[in-house]
Write a structure and sequence with these properties.
Blueprint: H1 5-20, E1 25-26, H2 28-37, E2 45-48, H3 56-60, E3 65-71, E4 84-88, H4 92-107, E5 118-123, E6 134-142, E7 146-153, H5 158-164, E8 169-171, H6 177-184, H7 189-195, H8 200-218, E9 229-241, E10 247-249, E11 253-258, H9 275-278, E12 283-286, H10 297-307, E13 313-316, E14 322-325, E15 328-333, E16 345-348, H11 355-361, E17 369-372, H12 382-392, E18 398-400, E19 406-409, E20 418-419, E21 438-442, H13 445-454, E22 461-466, H14 475-482, E23 490-495, H15 502-510, E24 517-521, H16 526-536, H17 543-553, E25 556-557, H18 561-573, E26 583-588, H19 591-599, E27 605-606, H20 611-620, E28 632-634, H21 641-652, E29 659-664, H22 684-694, E30 699-703, H23 710-718, E31 722-724, H24 727-741
Length: about 750
């Protein structure tokens, strides 16, 4: 629902008057005027500067009770100071007396007299204070995500209630009435009104939320409309449901800024010159030492690129000369302009203090893309660094960094690959294969190393990007670049913070991408936020807002780091599996594993096995020790490899089973799980590899064991089986994968 031209005129006049009077907050009656102009119900009201302005005609439109409020931008908590009273609407002299007495009472609390603009006389709105009948609807402007609509219990204890009982519901505008009604019907309070036969209350709430959504979005930096003002905060606390079924605002507060005073800019995702980071024609490495015995990040990167077999790599050292990298002698050029061919990508590894002169001095060989590995000079604040860099940056050059490890992109038949992660291959094994399908975007280079090490044997990463401080290339630029690529099935993201407006663009982009985006965000607590800010100068936003953004955009937000690793593994290794539903079955060989699995199903539902499957299971149960009536079959430690596999295959063949988990405690004597025996062709490990390839349903496996069974696990992982070290992790990862693919909110 758009704001009408007539409404905008009224609203702009209200903002103009307040701004000209030196205010960036609105008085309550001004908020009423705005709400009324956009179609919301407000009480009858009159504003007077003093008791002398009060007339009998003014009071005629009110009932027998009125609310009298003092109006002042200098005074908060007016009610506690005697600045809000409910009084009888007697003759004019009596109400005037109340106003004068209220002024004296309020001023008695101050040594320095605050400015009092006047008094607001408001219609008294009778209503019940039962939960649900008072609702706070507001908007706050988040530096990263723009306007965010708040919907929670209203009244004086709204903040307390949100903190200790039920957190505020947050939504990103704009949304129309139908979407607002859908959101309201997801709230817990909807059950109360449905039970008592008053679903129309939900419709009233939805109408108010949609109208405030339109207003907040229109007057924000997220809107493409040009407006004179930005609404920074709006609180209607509360809206109330009256006994005659009105949904009416009885209190209001708003803060705003003039656009020329507001410096936030929301830039669109930009993929211009992103391709050369991953598939460049010509790479220049700046800062390659000539001395092979001297540790140098520049030499490490040069060797990584050399080992990829690239023939279009060139190295820069201000002293010139030659050096040997691997088995080849390379010319060291004194500047990038000396390189005789064009280079699309430059990797800057020299000292941070020389970065400005590097850009300033390039004249002829200007790369399209630059990776800035170093951090900022020690004597410079980040804002000053950005300002200085912008002065010398050639037009259209894209930059990843500073303070990053840069990029890895695996080679394939069309691309020789790129690796600037500056860790030698003996210490950091990073390989790809034709099944590599995940891109990992990370603000932390350390997190990149952690995940590469953790998944080195799985070869799941097609690309890794450590983007650091995001001087230029943002998270949204990278997501927009990778999302349409056919060989990328999943986008994993580790983020410490979004820049101004970047969060909003992330939301707008992510909700239209049909590939899984799996996120872990640090800075959930105050301590975490401070640590993130000190690490990359990140603009860390409110985590509750971020959770709401992810939920509405269909993004998979993971709260703990181990589950994050587990989900990346599941989504990568199960990417080509088809999910038809949430019916699940399992095969375990320890009773406690079956119990834990049942407790961790989440959105999964136990399948009802078909009669045909039950008959197969009975035939397999020739020693009669197994309960085949359950959907989680405990085959006991007595079951050997071949029989174990037959139970698994019998269940996965059942059309009633959409997904499956297998749990193995490999210590049983009858299982060939120890070294040497686990390599037998019909061992459980090798059989599971074949079953996972054969069937198009998602299967996760857990192996609850120690170091003696690493080879047993490795056989399965090298065969692209999603293996976990405990049943809980296996089932939770399967639940997340299935829930995403069946449209269930996590």
């Amino acid at each position: 629902m758009n704001i009408s031209v007539e409404s905008m005129s009224i609203i702009n006049n209200i903002f103009d008057n307040a701004y000209e009077n030196g205010r960036k907050t609105l008085y309550e009656h001004e908020v009423y005027m705005i709400l009324k102009s956009i179609g919301l119900d407000v009480p009858k009201f009159v504003f007077v500067k003093n008791s002398d302005e009060l007339t009998e005609k003014m009071l005629e439109k009110f009932g027998r009770d009125i609310v009298v409020k003092i109006v002042s931008s200098d005074i908060s908590h007016k009610q506690k100071l005697g600045g809000v009273k409910v009084v009888k609407n007697h003759e004019t002299l009596y109400v005037g007396y109340v106003l004068d007495k209220m002024r004296k009472e309020v001023l008695s609390h101050f040594e320095q007299e605050p400015n009092i603009e006047g008094f607001l006389i408001v219609e008294f709105i009778p209503h019940t204070q039962s939960i649900g009948y008072e609702v706070l609807i507001g908007s706050k402007d988040d530096s990263s995500f723009g306007p965010v609509i708040t919907f929670t219990k209203g009244g004086d204890d709204a903040e307390f209630f949100a903190k200790y009982y039920d957190p505020a519901n947050l939504f990103l505008p704009p949304f129309r009435y139908n979407k607002a009604l859908e959101l309201v019907n997801d709230l817990n309070i909807c059950h109360k009104f449905k039970d008592i036969g008053h679903e129309e209350y939900l419709e009233l709430m939805a109408k108010a939320a949609s109208l405030i959504s339109s207003f907040a979005f229109h007057y924000s930096n997220a809107s493409k409309e040009k407006t004179k003002y930005i609404v920074k905060a709006l609180d209607i606390n509360p809206f109330v449901i009256t006994k005659d079924n009105r949904f009416i605002a009885v209190d209001g507060f708003a803060q705003f800024e003039k656009v020329e005073d507001n410096k936030e800019v929301m830039k669109e995702a930009n993929v211009r010159n992103i391709e050369p980071f991953f598939n460049p024609k010509g790479i220049a490495v700046i800062g390659v030492s000539a001395n092979p015995d001297k540790h140098s990040m520049g030499r490490e990167i040069a060797k990584l690129l050399h080992d990829l077999g690239r023939e279009d790599i060139y190295f820069v050292n201000i002293k010139g000369g030659k050096t040997v990298i691997g088995d080849k002698e390379y010319q060291l050029y004194k500047s990038i302009d000396e390189i005789p061919v064009e280079t699309e990508l430059a990797v800057y590894v020299a000292k941070a203090k020389y970065v400005f002169s590097f850009f300033e001095e390039m004249k002829t060989n200007i790369p399209k893309s630059v990776v800035l590995i170093p951090g900022i000079p020690s004597d410079m604040k980040y804002e000053q660094f950005k300002e200085n860099l912008s002065k010398v940056m050639p037009e259209d050059v894209r930059v990843i960094g500073p303070n990053c490890m840069g990029v890895f992109y695996g080679d394939d038949e069309n691309n020789p690959g790129v690796n600037t992660l500056f860790i030698d291959e003996e210490r950091l094994e990073l390989n790809t294969c034709e099944d590599s399908n995940t891109v990992f975007l990370t603000q932390s280079g350390g997190m990149a190393l952690t995940l590469i090490d953790k998944f080195s044997h799985l070869k799941i990463f097609k690309s890794v990007v450590s983007f650091g401080n995001k001087y230029d290339v943002k998270i949204v630029d990278l997501i927009k670049y990778f999302a349409p690529k056919e060989d990328i099935s999943n986008i994993a993201l580790y983020v410490e913070g979004f820049d101004q407006g970047e969060g909003r663009k992330f939301y707008e982009l992510a909700k239209d991408i049909d590939k899984p985006i799996i996120i872990y965000k640090s800075g959930k607590t105050d301590a975490g936020a401070k640590a993130a800010a000190s690490h990359t100068a990140a603009m860390t936003g409110d985590y509750d807002v971020f959770k709401a953004v992810c939920e509405q955009a269909g993004v998979i937000l993971i709260d703990d780091i181990k589950t994050y690793y587990d989900c990346i593994k599941a989504f990568s290794l199960l990417a080509d599996k088809k999910v038809k539903g949430r019916k699940v079955a399992g095969v375990v060989n320890a009773g406690f594993e079956a119990t834990i699995a049942a407790d961790e199903l989440g959105n999964l539902e136990l399948a009802t096995l078909s009669e045909e499957t039950n008959e197969k299971l009975k035939q397999l149960n020739y020693h009669g020790l197994i309960d085949t009536s359950s959907s989680i079959i405990d085959v006991t430690p007595m079951t050997e490899d071949v029989l174990y596999a037959k139970y698994i295959e019998a269940i996965i063949q059942d059309d009633a089973v959409d997904a499956m988990f297998v749990s193995i405690v490999p210590h049983a004597n009858d299982l060939r799980a120890l070294p040497n025996a686990c390599y037998d062709d019909d061992s459980l490990a090798n059989t599971l590899v074949r079953l996972v390839k054969k069937y198009n349903k998602p299967i996760t496996v857990s192996v609850n064991a120690g170091k003696f069974y690493r080879e047993f696990v490795s056989i399965m992982e090298e065969g692209k089986v999603a293996v976990y070290d405990d049943i809980r992790s296996s089932v939770k990862a399967l639940d997340t994968f299935v829930s995403y693919n069946t449209g269930i909110k996590k």
